[in-house]
Amino acid sequence: MKLSHRSLLLLLVLFLSGCTLLSGERGGAPVALSDATLPPPPQPTATATPASALGQPQVAVLSPLLVDDARGRLYASGQVNGLPKLLVLNAADGGLLAAWDTLGQLALDATRNRLAVDRGRQGLAVLDAGTGEILAEVNLPAQDAPPAPQFDTATGTLYAFRASTVYTIDPTIPDITHTTALSIAHTVCDEPAGDAPIVRSAYDATATRLYLSFITYNCVPWVTMTLVAYDAGDMTETGRHDIDIRAQFAPYDGRLFGVSVSRLGPTLHWVWDGAAQWDETSADYSGEPAGIVVDAGRGLVYSALGETLRIIDPGKAVAGEAAVPLLAGSRLDAHSVGPDTLYFVSPSGRLKLWSAANLFDGQSLPRPAPSALPVGPVVWLALSPNWANDRAMMALVRDEACPGAGGALFVLPDPAVGWQPAVLGAPGACEAVTAAAFSPAYGRDALLFAATTEPTTVLRSIDGGRSWTAAETPFPAGVIDQLVMSPAYASDQTLFAHLEDGALYRSRDGGQTWRAMSQPLDVLAALDAPGAAPALFGARGGDLLSSADGEMWTAVGPTPDGETLLLLAAAPTETPQPVLYAFTAGGRFARSLDGGLSWLTVSEMAATAAQLAIVTAAPPATRPVFLLHYREIMASYDDMASVWASTAAAAAGGYGPTAIALPPNFAAEPYLFVGTVDGQVLRVRADPQP
Questions:
Q1: Mean pLDDT of the 245-251 span
Q2: What's the topology of domain 18-141?
């Protein structure tokens, strides 16, 4: 497949900017989410939800973090309970103070208590940093995910960027006072391609210098960037140097400190005064640059690479090194003077706090900021069948402290309420939940089901997870790995419990009593298609079976290549025969268009655990299908007629996905929900890709 230079550039922009995942929503009133502890923020000017009425939200933070040391706050883009927000955090503990709907790339003028938010195609807004109130708006040319704006904190001047153009803005007017078109040559595969786009920016108030990096050459996999220094007064160029595309840099004390990892050479730590000085030191490190920040209290610069942090004294170059207990892939994102805290952000947005004093005095472990879900893999995720109206969700999080199968179940009854732990047994006990399910009529009956191993049983909740009752019929010891609802549950009150050893149980009274079925099955799937028969499909060994009631089963044909099935799903078509999706113990992912009579292998991969997310209500021609396989995601938007790695799948893969789910109304809300390895639930835009 041949890519145009515009396509190559788009891929690079997506790679360099995590904030593109949050595009799509715009403005609204700020919502206060908790009481501030240090110091309290001013009261919002618009109507806000009382903090006392809210549960504990789950917060995912996206880089970069902006620090307001005077007020003890952090600002960042992110998500609250899966919804994109501008976050205001407590610098002391990482707790959420407020969440606002004005989204985009951020700049902070702490002296004037102002935030600049570049909303891409929606232009730029200047906010009161205390309340979130929009004070001014400036129209700018349309562009998705432009580089972050920059404040000159001495004068209040604001710089914004579009493609290769710099806009100088006076926020008090508000208006553009000067436009500077920069001519840095851009080449694609040795062919001239116009002016190079601006990718990253930094402003040094001490030297009144603006640093901009440009993609000057790209022909995947070879990409080069050029770093250019400008006098911010008249935008004249003062110097330039070539850097690696993965380079990270931060200005301090009139100089720019950076780290680069060359594909063909060593790791380079460098310092540049914007004109002539360019000192490089190589180091035999492995891994990607993991952030560079300034400790204004000590007058030091910290540069992280992997789990090694280099301590730089601006007057003496390298002052020392320290091993920092980071999670794999975490980024060093900021330092706050007041609490003397270093902030790390995991790939999924988990905020980690670590005292900078540990670099010199101790070795305490980092601690996660308050979050509704514990640190641990999200092993299962489901959205309410009534998602468009109630926004309810469930997540199963593996508790590493609890032995055996299962994990802790959390319920999100409403985004405004926050994640709530489902206490199924004694308080403080390990909740060995192995499966869960929404009632198909959850919007009316608020009915949930959960299977546990202590003891093995099925519990039901009629109040959205606040209280639970156990089934009257005992189950044999084992692990219930599937709870499958009858498509006609509202009328027949039927659901099935499948155990890992193949045993199958049926309830016809809403999970209160259960009866063992005679047919053992490896997997079970229900077809939600009114009028279609049979409604159930299962597999045993190399045989595919069907049933109308779970009691009598009929052989349909062999499974794909006669292999044991690990996954099975069914969805309706325009014909009487449903489409079936199967993942085998041999690593074969296949589909059948004739109800299992024949199979077409879609892909072959390693035989490890996998998850399917399908919008069964969508017509086959546009049906989204996502397969999660060992933290990689395959995507299709035409019922697996073709398969490709979509932008959504690639973006979600960077977060360490361990569970996936799709909203039933995907056509109206094209998002992929992703549970991560460290206990986050994120929402990624997932429009169909050509």
A1: 88
A2: Thrombin, subunit H (2.40.10)
